[in-house]
Amino acid sequence: MRATTSARRAGMRAGVAFAALVTAIALPAVAAAQSTPAGQEAGAATTPSEVPPQLDTTAGSTAQSDQDSVGARDAAAQDIIVTGSRITTGGFTAPTPTTVIDSGAIAANAQPNVFTTIAQLPSLQGSSGTSVNTFSTSSGAQGLSSFSLRGVGAIRTLTLIDGQRVVGANVTGVPDVSQFPQLLIKRVDVVNGGASASYGSDAVGGVVNFITDTRFKGVKGNVQGGITDYGDNEQVLVQLAAGTSLLDDRLHIVGSTEYARDEGVGGGEFGIGLAGGRDWFKQTTLVNRNVTNDGSPQYVLRDYAQSITFAKYGLITAGPLQGIAFDQSGSPFQFQYGSNGVPSRTSSGAVIGCFAGFCQGGDLSGNVDAGRSLLSGLERINSYGRIGFDFAPNSEIYVTSNIAQVKTNNQPVGGQNRPALTIQCANPYVPAQVKAACATAGITQFQFGTSNAALGNTQVHTDRRQYRFVVGAKGRQPVFGSDWSYDIYVEHGTNRTKIDVDNILLTNRFNNAINATTLDGAIVCANPVARAAGCQPLNVFGGNPSQQALDYVMPANGPRQRTRQTQDVASLNFSGSPFSSWAGPVSLAFGGEFRHEFYKVTADPYGAGIENQPYDSIYPFDPVQLPGGNNWYAGNYKNGTGAYSVKEAFVEVDVPLLNGDSVGRASVNGAARVTDYSTSGTVWAWKVGGTWDLPIDGFRLRGVTSRDVRAPNLSELFAAPVTTTQPNFFDPFRNVNVLAIQNTIGNPNLTPEIARNTTAGISFSGSSWAPGLSLSFDWYKLRITDVISSLGAGDIVNLCFRNVLPETCSAFNLNNQAGPNFINVQAFNLASIDTSGFDIEASYRWQRPLGLPGRFTVRALATHISKFVTDTGLTGTIPNDTAGVNTGNTPDWKWLAVQTYETDDFSLLVQERWFSDGVLGHQYIECAPGTCPESTPQRPTIDQNFMPGAFYMDIGGTYNITEAVTAYAKVDNLFNRDPAKSPFFVNPALYDVLGRTYRLGVRFSL
Known about the structure:
The chain contains 13 helices and 47 strands. It is mostly beta strands. Among the domains are: 2-228 and 235-263 and 375-412 and 461-500, TonB-dependent receptor, plug domain (Ferric Hydroxamate Uptake Protein, Chain A, domain 1), CATH 2.170.130; 275-374 and 413-460 and 507-557, no CATH class. It has a 22-stranded antiparallel β-barrel. The model is unreliable at 1-80 (pLDDT under 50).
C-alpha cells in the first residue's frame, strides 16, 4: 500500500515538475514578447477587445487567427484539421455542422471552468457537472464534468484533446473536463452529428474537441474571483501559461498550470429552508391519490408537502399512539399534521383528511430535501506541458504531459431518514408519558419514523487524479509529387478515483443500537451478540444521542471506493491528395488505431461483502454485519474489474464533383471504419455526405448520413456486482413464490449500439453583398437501436417465460437444487432512442456601428427538438417522448444569444439564455376535478402538467488597463431568476439553482 501510494505521489510530482520545467524554460520569451504589441505576436494571448468572441457556424471553418498563430517552420500545422473528419487537405470543408468557439468567446464568458461555457450551447443537453449528480451517494459521478450532445448522454459524446482520446474519469468511460488544461485552449470544435467513421466509438451524439495552442509564445495569466448574491460559492481561479521557441525556432516549449476552487453551495436546514436564505423551495410533491375512477385526477401537484411517516426528531406513525412526536430534548408533543389531518390511530397509519402518505402544510420541520447541496464544492489543480522539436522541415516530434487533480464534495440529502422502525414500549429511552400511554392502550411496541436529524448529514468526497502522457510525431512530406500529412501518437492515461462517504450509519448497528434494554441498572443494547461486539445504545427520541452511540452507528471510516482506470492508445493517420479529378484534387485519409481500456474497483467490506473484500484493521470483523455486504445506509460500493481491446482501421475520401462559376463547387465525402472489439466482435461504421457551394454568392448546401456505433463500456460489461435478497419472488414457471438472490452484474455479451445519423442544411457566410453576416439551418435525425438498458428481475424472468426474449433465460435459476435461487439483473441491447429537430445559428459583425469606433457583434444559436422518443423494447410498454419535458434535459427550444461591443480600450457583453415552457410528462392527461376520465398506468390523469421555461440574462465587460493587462467583470443571472418548482426537488440540468453570481478578474499577456 505504501509503495503504491508513493508511486502515485511520485507520478503527481513528476507531472507537476514537468509542467513547471517547461514553464520555466519558456519564461525567457517574456523579454522578446514585450517588444511586440499585444495580440500581434504569433500565438499571443488575446482579450475580447482584441479578437471578438467567435461562434463560427460554418462547417469545418476555423478562425483566421488560428492559422496566424502557427510558427513559420510548422507548415504542416497550418492544415486546418476539421473535427468530424480526418482529412487535413487545405480547402476541405466537412459536411457535418460544426460550431467553433474560440479563446475570445471562452474568455468573454468569464467562467471558472471552460466546461460551463461549452455546456451552455443549445445542442448540448444533459451534460453533467457540479450542479448535477449532487443528490446521490452511490453513483460515483459527483462533480464529474462531462458533455452530452443531442440529449443522448455523456457516454454517447466523444470528448477529445487535439483530436486524441482522453482516459475516462468514471467507469462509464467519460472524461472529466475539469482535468483538462484550460488556459492554452485555442478553440473548441463542437460537431453536432455522428463521427464514428472518423473517430471511432462513442461519437454518436457528436464530438467535442479541445484544440490547444502548441506554438504559444510569451506569458499569459488570469486571476479571477466570484461570489453569489447570497454570499456563498466563493470562487477563485489562478492560471499561468508560458511558451517559447529555441534552437532557431525548432524547439517549441509550452506549459501551463492552474488552480481553481469553488466552495459550492451546501444543503440548508430541515424543512424548507435552503442555503443562503434562498426562498424558492416549496417542497413540491407529485402525490398519488391511488384513486383512478372518481372523476378527479389521480396525481395532484402540491406545495409544502409533509410526509406522515417521519418527523425531525421522531414520530409515532401508526396505532393508538399515532401522532405523538418528540422535540429536540426528547419530550413528546402532539404533531401538527397539515390539511387539518387527524391520525386514524390504526395499523395502516393513515391520516384522515390527508392524501396517502402526505399532508399539506403543518409541521414541515422534518422534511429532508432542503438538505441537498445545490452545487458541489470543487477544487482542481492542473498542470500541462508540451515539448516539440522540428526534426525536419514541416515535421515535428513531441511529448505532452497532463497531470490533474479534481476534488469535489457534496451533501446528498438532509439526515438519514428511517420511516418504518419498530420500538418496544419497554425501551428505557421511551419517555415515561409514552410508556404510560402504551400501558393504557395495551400495546408493547409501536411504529416510529425519524429524519435522524440528530445524526447529522452525510457528506460525499471524491478525489480524481489524472496522469496522461502522449508521445507523437506529425507533419507533412511530399510523396510521389503531392504533400501528405501524417499524425502518429501513443497515449497512456491513468485515472485514480477515491470516493469517501462521511457521517453515514451502518444499518444493522443502528437497528441494534436503538433496541435498548436495562441490565444491572445500565442502559445497554438488547442483542447480546451486538453488545459483546461493542454495541452502544442510541436514544432515538430527540436530538441528544451520546457520542459513544454516534461513534458506534457511524464509524469514522465510512463507505469507500477506490478505482483505477487505464487507457492505452496507438494511432496513426495519413492524409493527402493522390490525384486530381476534373473538379479539383481528390483528398484521401486513412489510418488505424489500437486501444486498450482497463478498470479495477475495490470497496470496503461492509459494502462489498467479506468474500470480495476481507475485514481489516480499518473495517474490523463485526458479527452484526451481513457477510454479503450492503450494510451501509447508502454508498454500498462493490468490487469489480474488466478490460477490453479495440483494433480498427478507417479510410475517408473527398471527391470534387463540380468546380465552376456557373455551377459552384461541390464534393462528396465518404468514410468507412471497421472495428474489432475483444468483447463483441467486428462492427462497421460509415458516412456519406457532401457540400455544394452554390453559384449564388455565400450560400452552401450540406448533408451527411452516417452509421455510428457505441461499444458497451467497462461498467456495462463488467459492473461490480450488487446483491440483494428477494424473499417472495414469483416464479411463473411453477406458479409459486420463492426466496431468490438478485445479483446486479455486468453483461459481457452486450453488443455495440447502432445509430443512424442524418443531417441536412444550408448556410450563408462570406458574401460580398452581405459582409459580416453568417446564417445556417441544419435539420437532424438520430435513431439509436440496440440501446443498452437494464431490466428488472421480474422482467427478465417473464420475458423468458413468455418466450419474448430467450436470451434472458440464461440469466436466472429459480429451481436450483445445488444452491440458492438467483436472478442476474443485467443490461441488454433492447431499447431504442429516436430524436429529431433542427439547429439555427446566426451572427453579424458590424465594423464602426453608427460611425462609432470599434465593432458590434450579434450572434445566436438555437436548437429545436421535435421529438425525443425512448422505447424500452419491452412488450406492453408505450414509447415515451420527452421532448419538452422540463423535468429532464430536452426542452422543445433552447437558445443562446450574445451581443458584444468592442473598442481598443474596452468591451461590453450581453448574453441571453432561454429555454421554452414544458410539461412534467407527455403521458399525463391534465384535467380538473369532475372532468377526468379513468386513469390508467399508460395514461394517468393529473391536475397540473406544466413546467415553465426560463430566461436568464448575463452582462459583462472588459477594460484594457494597459496593452498587456485587462480587467473584466461578469454578472450571471442578472435578474436573479429562481428555478421552477419541481416534484423532484429541482432540475439543475436546465434551471439556474444558484441565483445571481458576480465575477471579477484580471488577465495579462506579455
